[in-house]
Amino acid sequence: MIQSSLDPLVHSVEVNCSQSDAFELWAFRPSSWWPMKDHSTFGENSISVVIEPGTGGRIYETDTAGSQREWGRITDWSPPSGMSFTWHIYGSSDEATDVEVKFDQVNDERTRVTVIHSGWERIPQRAAELREGNRVGWIDLLEAFSTATNRQSNRE
Fold this sequence. Notes:
Distance between the termini: 43 Å
Strand order of the largest sheet: 1-7-6-5-4-3-2
Number of strands: 7
CATH class: Alpha Beta
CATH superfamily: START domain
Shape: globular
Helix content: 25-40%
CATH architecture: 2-Layer Sandwich
Order of helices and strands: EHEEEEEEH
CATH topology: Alpha-D-Glucose-1,6-Bisphosphate, Chain A, domain 4
Structural class: alpha+beta
Radius of gyration: 15 Å
Strand content: 35-45%
């Protein structure tokens, strides 16, 4: 099947932790695993990624000077099964797309994390370029997240 530049991106990874631990790491400790140097707007000057819990919470990064740049807003907060948010790391909130992150328990020690990124039809002139950039980005982020869950399970 040929994918259109407007089709949702869907990426999954199975991680070595419970559903609640996976949600907690993603939602409350993103700076511990997010590859900020390569996946942020401040680049090497980025020092943290924050996800404010609850519907309406911001997702933003902070740089070494204390400046903040908002990436999106939480639209659904459903711990530990998932969250949804608008996503505009690449531009203004007027160009926001939608991301859903689902945490599905596989067994007591494994969870499938799925990222579904949609809403490309709202930015038709930039959809193909931004979709491809985000495709690569989500793959990298899920790999980093998986690595972090492995480090976490090795400490326990």
